[in-house]
Input
Amino acid sequence: MIEGVQTDKRTGRVSFTLKANVAVANTLRRIMMESVPTMAIHEVEFIKNDSALYDEMLAHRLGLIPLTTDLKSYEIKKENEEYTAKNSLKLFLKAKGPCTVYAEQLESQDPKVKAAHPKTPIVKLLKGQELEFQATAILGVGKDHTKFAPCKAWYTQEYKVSVKNDHPDFEEYKNKYPKAAFAANGKIDPKLIEKHNLYDACKG
Output
């Protein structure tokens, strides 16, 4: 059972509480990273590359640029199958320095598939340098190559925090605890321990 879902739109981070054992949590983590299909650049044909990066280095970098994915329009390419409109799409880029080339400059055949993070820098071009290429993107899964992993996922076991602010030794040892764990009233607040992940620092 999943509850307490929190989404940070700025960072793209999602957190939730899973009422399950460690085996189930780890299975869910691996499914998210390894079995959810996503688009990624698979092949690059360079027409011109005057940048400081070799073709191979630039192609590797392009493969790691996250792309938005339309699972309704595409299917995973089978081994030895030709590229088709159903299993692949083309992206194009042409730039001339001096400038920094960003992922948002990738021109896609399909407006639904584009750079997920537009301001990701690809390479810097100096005056007179040019870059032009045609890339092929396909669907894949993270277990085949990390470039297809749609996320990174992890879990931590939830602590049960019990604070005894009225303990007779509290005043003597309170200076040993992190300041971030204390509320305005001078008492240790369990919610602040959770917020700042101070479980180990406040243990004992």
User: Anything to note?
Assistant: The CA atoms of residues 78 and 87 lie 9 Å apart. The chain has three domains: 1-36+150-158, 37-140, 159-204. The chain has a mean pLDDT of 91. Residues 1-36+150-158 form one domain.
